[in-house]
From TrEMBL:
GO terms for molecular function: kinase activity; metal ion binding; phosphoenolpyruvate-protein phosphotransferase activity. It comes from Alicyclobacillus vulcanalis. The chain holds residues 250 to 568 of 568 of the full protein. It is found in: Cytoplasm. The lineage of its organism: Bacteria, Bacillati, Bacillota, Bacilli, Bacillales. This is Phosphoenolpyruvate-protein phosphotransferase. The active site is at C254 (proton donor). It is an enzyme of class 2 (transferase).
Length: 319
């Protein structure tokens, strides 16, 4: 079985009837790009940049970040790399940022909310990402977007960083794609509007599931309610994909669900364009893609959307 999967490392991620998707890897530190490549990843769908900021006394400098992003861009050798801007707060505390103690940290001061408030911190990161975009195919992605105003404010900050680099004559990729994570139900519901603001979406199911079912992703006591394949979540995923495709934009997924082989056929059938996961899941998901006819996946997805419960969805995909 292992050797059969190994053979898929250089195979295309395509269904027998020709639907092609991209299978990419998630990383936290630059060195992990090698593992994604070793498993046949076609890109980096999520570089969790917050790991560069953790376990230290102060924020990494623009220069240090530039080196980290450039390292990944170069390692991936022209394959796409999505750098997610700083996603702190919630379960990820960083002492030197002075994040307040909050009653509801997952509903509080986190991610893009912090970056739009701490402008210098944000600007340094955006400059570093832009500068590194000269050395490979980088994309930039904003986390935890809930409203159109937030995307517009984040894009303005990016535009200001670009202007400053142009004035200095520092090269960057003028065509760099800009995307947002869809991990707040509000964003999923207005996906058709958000799609007009960006080049792509990536669905963060880890947070989307917890917010949709009002179920803290870390609370063991209510674990039974944390249901990534609940029809409520699948219906939101459908809204996101349909909203993006209506405006010619592509949609990825970088939450854990993207790497769950039980979900692959359904996500394929809903029209997902890119799947990003930990390196160790890539070959198993590619295997499912290569065995699933797109036409069958679409009818499976339709049945999943009509199911009553997550258990019923799981029965549809029992392998
Ligand atoms: C997600 O929420 O699905 C996601 C990918 O982001 P994180 O797990 O880093 O919050
Ligand atoms: Mg998240």
């Amino acid at each position: 079985e292992r050797t059969r999967l190994e053979a898929l490392r250089t195979a295309e991620s395509v269904t027998p009837d020709g639907r092609k998707v991209e299978i990419a890897g998630n990383i936290g530190m630059p060195g992990e790009a090698a593992q994604v490549l070793a498993q046949g990843g076609e890109g980096i769908g999520l570089f969790r940049s917050e790991f560069l900021y953790m376990n230290r006394g102060e924020a990494p400098s623009e220069e240090e970040q530039f080196e980290a992003y450039r390292q990944v861009a170069e390692a991936m050798d022209g394959r796409p790399v999505i750098v997610r801007t700083l996603d702190v707060g919630g379960d990820k505390g960083i002492p030197y940022l002075g994040l307040p103690h909050e009653e509801n940290p997952f509903l509080g001061y986190r991610a893009i909310r912090v970056c739009l408030d701490q402008r210098e911190l944000f600007a340094a990161q955006l400059r570093a990402i832009l500068r590194a975009s000269h050395y490979g195919k980088l994309r930039v992605m904003f986390p935890m977007i809930a409203t159109v105003e937030e995307v517009r404010a984040a894009k303005r900050a990016l535009e200001e960083a670009k202007q400053a680099l142009r004035r200095e004559g520092t090269p960057f990729d003028e065509g760099i794609e800009v995307g947002i994570m869809i991990e707040v139900p509000a964003a999923a519901v207005i996906a058709d509007r958000l799609a007009q603001e960006v080049d792509f979406f990536s669905i963060g199911t880890n947070d989307l599931v917890q917010y949709t079912l009002a179920c803290d992703r870390l609370n063991e006591r209510i674990r039974h309610l944390y249901q990534p394949l609940n029809p409520s979540v699948l219906r939101l995923v459908k809204m996101v994909i349909d909203g993006a495709h209506a405006h010619g934009k592509w949609v990825g997924m970088c939450g854990e669900l993207a790497g769950d082989p039980r979900a692959t056929a359904i996500l394929l059938g809903l029209g997902l364009d890119e799947f990003s996961m930990s390196a160790g899941s890539i070959l198993r998901v590619r295997d499912v893609v290569r065995k699933t006819r797109y036409e069958d996946a679409k009818s499976l997805a339709r049945r999943a959307l009509e199911a009553d419960t997550e258990a019923d969805v799981l029965k549809l995909v029992e392998i």
